C-alpha cells in the first residue's frame, strides 16, 4: 500500500508544477548532460528526441517535432526536448539511454524512462495526440460489457474492475494501481456491479482472488498480469518487440478460434517462467502475418502453427499439440537458445542424436476442444481439398524468393535426411519477423554507419 500511496503523492507534485510559457522559437528545449535530469523531472511527461545532424531522418523530423511542441503549448504538464548525440556535452545521456539509431524518441514520466519509445507516425498531430493520451486519466469508464470487449480488442489486454460505485471501499486502490501501472497496462472500470477484478485478453481471463482493498496484493497480481510471458505481436509493436533482441517462440493462430492461444498461454505460464528475459513467447494473428507462414510452407488453413524465430532463421515446431509434452517443448526451446538447431542446419551430417521431435502423436490426447473448435465429423469436400492443395503449392513456390527474389533464400529449405527417410526435426527457413526491426528506410542505424 505504501507503493501506491507514494505514487499518489508523486502525481500531486507533478500536477502542481507551474508550467512556463512556450516561446515559438524555443518550443523544443535543447538538452545535454547538465540539464537533462532536471528537465525530465520537471514535468509529468517528457519526450526527448535523440538525433544527429548528419542523419537525414533527424533533419526531416526536426520541423515536425517543433510544430508538435507548439501544438501542445503550455496548457499541459508535458514538454518536448532534444539531444544532439554528436555533441561532446551529451555523450553521457547517449550512453545511458542506449541510443542505437537516429532519431530515437524516448518517453519519460515524472523523470522515469518508459520502456516504450514513440514509434508512431512522424507528424505533428500524431505526436501531440500521443502525448495527450499519456496525460489522460488512467482509468477508462465503461457503461456496458460491449465497451469492455472493444477496449480489450483495441489494447489486446486490460485490467477490468467491477464496482458498485466510485465510493466503494476498493475503488481508490484500483485508481492508484492504474496510476502506478498505467504505462504497462490499460485499465477500465464498470460501475453497478459486485466488486471484482479481472485481467482480460482476447483469448483468456484471469481473476484476482485476493483482498481488493490490499494494495500490496493488488500490485503484485497486476505486475504479474501486466508483464506477461506471452505477448501479442502486431504491426504497431513489432519494431519494439524485435528490437529487444530476444528470439521468438511464436504461435500463429486463427483469430476466429482462440483455443490454441489459450493452450499456448497456459502451458507457458505454468512451466516456462524461468525463460523470462531469455526468449519472447509471442502470439500472432495468422490472418495478418501470412508472409511468415508462406516461408514456413504453411497457409491459413494450417493454423495454429508454432515456430521459433532467431531473426536469422525460423524453425517450425511440427506438431503444435506436443507443447503439452513439456519436456519436448522445453528441449525445442533449449535447442534454439544453445544454437543446436542452427548448427545442425548448416551441418546436417552431425545429426547423430535421436530425433526428439518425431511427429508421433497417437498416444497422446489433447485437452477437450470447445464445441465450436472443430465441427465434429465434418469432412472436406473434394473441391475444398483441391483448393487447399493449390494454395499450399503457391505458398511453397513463393517461399524461396519472397524475401528478395534473387534465389538466396533457397538455403532456407529444410535439409534432406540422410538415407531418404522423412526428417521430423524442425524445418528451418530464413527469418521474416526480423524485418520488423528498425528499418534503414526510417532510421540511421548506428552499427551500419560504424561498418562503413
How would you characterize the overall build of this protein?
It is a single chain. The chain has 452 residues and is α/β, with parallel strands linked by helices. The chain has three domains: 119 residues, Glutaredoxin; 88 residues, Glutaredoxin (3-Layer(aba) Sandwich); 191 residues, Glutaredoxin (3-Layer(aba) Sandwich). Helices cover 35% and strands 20% of the residues. It contains 15 helices and 18 strands. The strands form four sheets. It has a six-stranded mixed β-sheet with strand order 12-14-13-15-16-17, with helices on one face. A five-stranded mixed β-sheet has the order 1-3-2-5-6, sandwiched between helices. Strand 10 and strand 11 form a beta hairpin. The N and C termini lie far apart (54 Å). The C terminus is likely disordered. Keywords: Signal. It comes from Salpingoeca rosetta (strain ATCC 50818 / BSB-021). One of its GO terms (molecular function) is protein disulfide isomerase activity.
Notable traits:
single chain; 452 residues; alpha/beta; Glutaredoxin; 3 domains; six-stranded mixed beta sheet; five-stranded mixed beta sheet; 35% helix; globular; disordered C terminus; ERP44
Q: Structural class, judged by helices and strands? A: alpha/beta
- State the end-to-end distance: 54 Å
CATH architectural designation of the largest domain: 3-Layer(aba) Sandwich
Q: Looking at this structure, what is the CATH superfamily of the largest domain? A: Glutaredoxin
- CATH-assigned fold name of the largest domain: Glutaredoxin
Count of extended strands: 18
Percent helix: 25-40%
Which stretches are poorly predicted, pLDDT < 50 over at least 5 residues?
9-25, 360-386, 399-424, 448-452
Amino acid at each position: 500500500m505504501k507503493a501506491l500511496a507514494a505514487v499518489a503523492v508523486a502525481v500531486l507534485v507533478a500536477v502542481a508544477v507551474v508550467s512556463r510559457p512556450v516561446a515559438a522559437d524555443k518550443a523544443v528545449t535543447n538538452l545535454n548532460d547538465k540539464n537533462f535530469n532536471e528537465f525530465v523531472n520537471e514535468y509529468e511527461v517528457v519526450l526527448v528526441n535523440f538525433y544527429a545532424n548528419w542523419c537525414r531522418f533527424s533533419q526531416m523530423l526536426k520541423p515536425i517535432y517543433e510544430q508538435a511542441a507548439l501544438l501542445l503549448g503550455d496548457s499541459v504538464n508535458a514538454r518536448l526536448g532534444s539531444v544532439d548525440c554528436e555533441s561532446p556535452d551529451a555523450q553521457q545521456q547517449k550512453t545511458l539511454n542506449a541510443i542505437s539509431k537516429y532519431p530515437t524518441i524516448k518517453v519519460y514520466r515524472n523523470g522515469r524512462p518508459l520502456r516504450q519509445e514513440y514509434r508512431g507516425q512522424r507528424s505533428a498531430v500524431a505526436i501531440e495526440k500521443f502525448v495527450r493520451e499519456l496525460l489522460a486519466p488512467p482509468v477508462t469508464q465503461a457503461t456496458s460489457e460491449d465497451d469492455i470487449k472493444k477496449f480489450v480488442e483495441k489494447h489486446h489486454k486490460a485490467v477490468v474492475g467491477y464496482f458498485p460505485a466510485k465510493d466503494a471501499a476498493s475503488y481508490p486502490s484500483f485508481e492508484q494501481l492504474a496510476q502506478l501501472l498505467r504505462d504497462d497496462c490499460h485499465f477500465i472500470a464498470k460501475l453497478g456491479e459486485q466488486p471484482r477484478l479481472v485481467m482480460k485478453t482476447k483469448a483468456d481471463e484471469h481473476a484476482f482472488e485476493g483482498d481488493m482493498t490490499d494494495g500490496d496484493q493488488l500490485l503484485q497480481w497486476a505486475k504479474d498480469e501486466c508483464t506477461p510471458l506471452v505477448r501479442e505481436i502486431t504491426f504497431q509493436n513489432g519494431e519494439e518487440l524485435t528490437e529487444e533482441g530476444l528470439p521468438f517462440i511464436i504461435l500463429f493462430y486463427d483469430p476466429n478460434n482462440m483455443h490454441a492461444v489459450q493452450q499456448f498461454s497456459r502451458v507457458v505460464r505454468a512451466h516456462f517462467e524461468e525463460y523470462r528475459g531469455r526468449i519472447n513467447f509471442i502470439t500472432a494473428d495468422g490472418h495478418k502475418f501470412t508472409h511468415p507462414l508462406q516461408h514456413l510452407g504453411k497457409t491459413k488453413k494450417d493454423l495454429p502453427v508454432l515456430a521459433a524465430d532467431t531473426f536469422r532463421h525460423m524453425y517450425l515446431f511440427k506438431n503444435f499439440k506436443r507443447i503439452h509434452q513439456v519436456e519436448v517443448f522445453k528441449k525445442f526451446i533449449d535447442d534454439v537458445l544453445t544454437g543446436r538447431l542452427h548448427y545442425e542446419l548448416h551441418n546436417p551430417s552431425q545429426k547423430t542424436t535421436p530425433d526428439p521431435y518425431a511427429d508421433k502423436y497417437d498416444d497422446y490426447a489433447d485437452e477437450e476442444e470447445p464445441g465450436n473448435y472443430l465441427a465434429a465429423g465434418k469432412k472436406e469436400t473434394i473441391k475444398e481439398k483441391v483448393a487447399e492443395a493449390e494454395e499450399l503449392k503457391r505458398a511453397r513456390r513463393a517461399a524461396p524468393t519472397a524475401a528478395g527474389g534473387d534465389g538466396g533464400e533457397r538455403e532456407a529449405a529444410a535439409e534432406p535426411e540422410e538415407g531418404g527417410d522423412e526428417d521430423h526435426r524442425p524445418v528451418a527457413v530464413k527469418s521474416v519477423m526480423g524485418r520488423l526491426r528498425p528499418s534503414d528506410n526510417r532510421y540511421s542505424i548506428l552499427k551500419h554507419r560504424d561498418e562503413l
